[in-house]
Amino acid sequence: MVTIQNLTKTTNKWMKNIFKELGYSANSSTIVARHSFSTHMLYEGATKELIQESLGHQNTKITENYLASFEKSVVKEFATRLAAFRDEPAIRKPVKGILSI
User: pTM of the predicted model, to two decimals?
Assistant: First the structure.
């Protein structure tokens, strides 16, 4: 009988092998893929409801808690950029995953 745990374990093994064959040193897993997917969705402006549905969360609070750490990192990055802009307006670097003007 195939269980979710067995499917996840097999998928993680395949992902690890694929990453190794491609020459990536970073570890990969379904958790990393899920986190990356939701991070990209958030940074590209997807609504929390869409992210919730995409991740299969039944409760909005679960998604909000999951995304809270992402939002803090975005706020910190923009605060850093604003300080740099104030000090050196000629230097403007795009924030990874966020469209810049």
Answer: 0.55
